[in-house]
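Appendix B, Record 12. Input sequence as logged:
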Amino acid sequence: MFNKSYPRIVFAGLSGDSGKTVVTCGFAASLKEMGLNVTAFKKGPDYIDAAWLSLVSGKPARNLDTYLMGFPKVKNSFLKNAANGDISLVEGNRGLFDGVDSMGTHSTAELAKLLKAPVIIVQNLTKVTRTAAATILGCTKLDPDLNIAGVILNQVAGERHLKVAKEAIEDATEIPVLGAIPKLKNDYVLPSRHLGLITPDEFTRKHGFISDLRIIIEDNVDIPKVISLANSLPFIDFNENNIEREIDSGGETVRIGYFRDASFSFYYPENLEMLDVAGAELVPISAVDENDLGELDAVYIGGGFPETNLTQLELNRGLMHSLKNLVEEGLPIYAECGGLIYLARDIEWENKSYSLAGILPINIKMKEKPQGHGYYRAVVDSENPFFKVGTQINGHEFHYSEIYDFDEKLNSALSVIRGNGSFNKRDGLTYKNVFASYLHIHALASPEWVDGMMSSARKFKNIKKTKTIIEG
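Logged structural output:
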């Protein structure tokens, strides 16, 4: 056990689309320009905001989710990753007090209290003035233990708008307004689509855009005051023992390929890192450019946006055939959401049908509204290549696709307790050594997934060795 001061700040909103990502990215870019080593975090289950924060900070942004990981693991992850930085920025999600229930369990507010971090509220000022003060005052009354240290106003219409709102907030709450961002042209708004923001990989002018956000923050926010708040904090106790389960790094090294391109980019850094620690050689694969998988012992296909690249994916039949042949030989495949889509027979999107890998006997449609959105809990209730029967898994799902046609004999290994899954409260579709679901997991929350990946890969590798010896 030891104590250390970790300069830190939480940027929170009163709702979604308040401007948290714009402020956090712009602020991180400004601190980087000053020469500070910035560590960024995203509260909640989120790949895209975290990808933008990773781009700006220059290193992987970590997700902090107490529902998935529990409070001790979240605290440990924060402290471990913040230890070598000069300042840590945590972007909240949704509204400040929004959690899984009416008490706000697992909310941004609860995370801020866990980390003993001051909160700066990013408040959208569109068409309000003094009412903004009532909102901030309500936040202080709802949870007096929360350290709301400042407000940054967003979407400010002009000097008079700012003057009235600023005076009202500071007079009613004694909380300082630390900045006021004017209404911005669309050129300064992060581009979005059905799942939220687009990923940095798909945005051609991402670096120029980040530079623009930096200038906006430098011109409109009291950066020295925010830094002072981040530095004026109590020490945090950090107990390294008995929080994270030790990863078994023994055993034979295996080669695990993972799809990594514009279509498949949803991977928590810890998932890949923990595989690496366990003895995996990780091989990135482009689903558009690669034609042959080569010598692999397992494949991991994460989520992403395959629906936006269906023409390119469909054209690369070579990779699909290679994957399908290896599946028949017993290659283990673990697929999440977008990965599940890739393994289907076909998908309908915008009144057009596209042929996919055809490994799973399912057909998919893209819908206009989410078919699964939010936290997810399931129990493993039948044999499969990766999880022991009886394992309980916490995760999340967010998909606009639905399985509308499937073989009735299709096996599934998950009974969904919370969430939607694939169909009829079932998920975890299995075929030979394939496991595919709409479930997204975080390896810190589900370390048994690492065990399953490594065990399946090693079994397949040994089978190949034995076959080679027999045939030789």
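The chain has a mean pLDDT of 92.
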